[in-house]
Amino acid sequence: MALSELLKTKDFGDVTVSEVCRQGGLARKTFYRDFSSLEDVLDFAVSSSVKDFAADPSDKTLGDFLERLISFAYVNKARLLDLEKQGLLSRIAASFKKCLLANDSFRGLLVGEGIIPAERSEYDLAFLLGAETGLLERWVKNGCQETPDQLVAISFETIDHFETNK
User: Fold this and answer.
1) I need a surface site. Which of 15, 68, 78, 80 has the fewest CB within 10 A?
2) Are 129 and 65 in contact (CB under 8 A)?
3) Under CATH, which number does the domain 1-34 receive?
């Protein structure tokens, strides 16, 4: 993606639509047909990633979901570190969470597999995604030191902590 390439050498605030169009071989008119701003391009990229992530029907347990989410972040850690340097990580995390919350097939999968209860799936999914995106944001801000297995363990230890201290 043209914007990703430009972000390797420039701050997001210094990138212009003209540069993105030149890098991507697009006319400005074409850009504005699909996007109103560079922020829209970021949201589109996140939305595309979420669609790929949500399309995997392999989750059978909460652990499966957490492992896949954390592995997804781990595979993309270089990009996430770059986004953190640009001050865009929180925006990307919020967009990722918003896209997954709006994805009915993803929610249906988690309900269908018994990972979250149907009667309050909206709340459980919001809580789960808020906690995990927060954990992943902290992981990136700390330099991505832990492995996926360590992050899954931290997730479950935190869940257990809240469960035993309610």
Assistant:
1) 78
2) no
3) 1.10.10
